């Protein structure tokens, strides 16, 4: 591997990226006539953070510890906002801005290590990343997605050091796992980098694993104590809910995951990525190839276990900054092969124009998607939650899908039909007859669902309320097995 430069962004460039990240976040927030999150799951994390801050409990329902929050670290980051008395939206957007800023800075720093002779181009690579519409959407989603993507990018940056610090690399992989369980996959490319760069290879790998286990062990014990399993209950519930998608051909599922980074300006980055792969193979640069393998393997993991691409492919979003940085380095190397300086400048200008135009166009389109997503959550989930809070007794037992906004705005005893905080329903999560029996046994008073998702259950209820967009409905639960 070529010797990397120590050059980094100066303060003015870092500040510029921070201001650009703030503008990118503000653009989406101000574009929406409604203020809210584009995902109901964001309110799940807010509920856990509130209960942790005010009651010292890791619980969605007060007094009932559970593993319904996938991201342990994200809940911890949200908790200070509750202590400070800040609005949940404001604190989450602040964290999103800082995360987006970090993405841009780390992307620029990683590019310098990949192309040490082009440090002047690094800040533009950073700007490209933080304007990518997927990343901006993630930053204002109230979820951990952008933070996890940033930690993946930090792993790329660290792995490109000539001699990566093995223990720190292990801690980084462990921190990523605390944000999302699939963070443990970062051990693979980091392990390759540590092995290649360390003169005492077995000892370095031991340090890597020690750093990782230092965070892994208490995390697994915590999950076992709160949810009765080594991983959050969401880990199992989501897979059970979408298990029927596994009937699709594996190649189709894998391709759908790999296609997510190409939606937007990523499609224009593809030639640079292919050239980077070619150059890495030719130079036997196994560090870069380890990251190519990680991209493929990460997508394959979800194709095998959770082959969904809804919500703009948010599970595949961590692939995007890695893909874009590697592609930028590939484009730079490809353009540098043009011998004639005038021709090289012309092609470089055309390439930058193409990428910039595509990025800005999809930033705008992504903003429109964000507006529609917020409108849906506010008009369906949040509006329903407010109705429930105003029209049902505090001790009413609810059967719900989805639980986020309801748990935050209308806390009631509930049965989570998606299994996130009611793991007992996971074995029969798609069996409405067994669900009906379970609701009877739990003494459910109200059913709150999208009727298209639960046609048999909703047919057994008395309709009380329909959300403004006509989707989510509240029923008085009549009881008894649903009609077949």
Please tell me the overall pLDDT: 93
Regarding quaternary structure, how should these chains be classified?
single chain
Morphology? globular
Q: Helix content range of the residues, please?
A: 55-70%
Order of strands, widest sheet: 4-3-5-7-6
Major sheet, described briefly? 5 strands, mixed
Secondary-structure element series: HHEEHHHHHHHHHHHHHHHEHEHEHEE
Number of strands: 7
What Rg is obtained from the alpha carbons, in whole angstroms? 24 Å
Q: What is the overall number of helices?
A: 20
Q: Approximately what portion of the residues adopt beta-strand conformation?
A: 5-15%
Low-confidence stretches: 1-7
Q: Assign the structural class, choosing from mainly alpha, mainly beta, alpha/beta, alpha+beta, or little secondary structure.
A: mainly alpha
Describe this structure as you would to a colleague.
- With 484 residues, the protein is mainly alpha-helical.
- The protein has two domains: 11-373, no CATH class; 392-477.
- The protein is built from 20 helices and seven strands.
- It has helices spanning 11-31, 41-55, 72-83, 88-114, 122-131, 133-139, 145-159, 166-179, 187-197, 201-227, 233-241, 250-259, 266-283, 286-305, 310-313, 319-336, 341-391, 404-409, 432-442, 455-459; strands at 59-61, 64-65, 398-400, 414-416, 446-449, 461-466, 473-477.
- It has a five-stranded mixed sheet. Strands 1-2 form a two-stranded antiparallel ribbon.
- Helix 4 (88-114) runs antiparallel to helix 5, helix 4 (88-114) packs antiparallel against helix 6 (133-139) and helix 9 packs antiparallel against helix 14 (286-305).
- The longest helix is centred in the C-terminal third of the chain and has 51 residues, at 341-391.
- It is globular and about 80 Å long.
- 50% of the residues are buried.
